[in-house]
């Protein structure tokens, strides 16, 4: 019950503990501790659960407490390309596993009146050994 005593100053006590540990106290001690813990919890639990535990709303958490950490950047650098590749692969895999709709023969090759023309026969000619690019002299 000593922490409920209005005469007890927890901030001063925490600053003394930090100094004894050989560190410099940072600004907004309790706010930053709360912010760090809320950010950590959000990594593992849904936002509504964390906000219920911490005692604020999701809007307040987003505006005042949630942080972007060095670990977020590291994971993005390490796993960003891998995650994008996996997502692309799984999207294509989903497309391949779905059955294709059966179409009638006339639906597969639609007739476009007035646009379709006959194909003229083009004789096959060998490609010259020098390639198809024009030769320039000089």
Secondary-structure content class: mainly alpha
Can you write the helix and strand succession as a string? Answer: HHHHHH
Instruction: Please report the number of helical segments.
Output: 6
Helix content: 40-55%
SS strand fraction: under 5%
The main sheet comes to:
none
Distance between the termini: 98 Å
Instruction: Pick out the low-confidence regions.
Output: none
Shape field:
elongated
Output mean pLDDT: 77
Radius of gyration of CA atoms, rounded to a whole number: 34 Å
What is the β-strand count? 0
What keyword list fits this structure?
single chain, 138 residues, 53% helix, mainly alpha, 0% strand
Question: What do these coordinates show?
Answer:
The protein is elongated. The model has no long low-confidence stretch (mean pLDDT 77). It has a domain at 2-82. The chain is an all-alpha fold and 138 residues long. Helices cover 53% and strands 0% of the residues.
Secondary structure elements and pairings:
Blueprint lengths: L9 H11 L8 H14 L4 H8 L3 H8 L4 H28 L7 H4 L30
Quick summary:
The chain is mostly helical. It is built from six helices and no strands.
């Amino acid at each position: 019950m000593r922490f409920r005593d209005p005469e007890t100053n927890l901030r001063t006590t925490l600053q003394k503990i930090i100094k004894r540990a050989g560190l410099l106290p940072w600004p907004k001690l309790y706010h930053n501790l709360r912010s760090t813990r809320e950010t950590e919890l959000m990594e593992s639990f849904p936002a509504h659960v964390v906000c219920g535990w911490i005692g604020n709303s999701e809007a307040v958490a987003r505006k005042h407490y949630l942080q972007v950490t060095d670990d977020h950047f590291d994971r993005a650098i390490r796993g960003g390309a891998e995650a994008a590749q996996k997502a692309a692969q799984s999207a294509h895999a989903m497309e391949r596993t779905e059955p294709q709709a059966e179409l009638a023969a006339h639906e597969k090759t639609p007739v476009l009146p007035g646009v379709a023309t006959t194909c003229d026969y083009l004789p096959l000619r060998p490609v010259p050994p020098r390639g198809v690019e024009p030769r320039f002299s000089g």
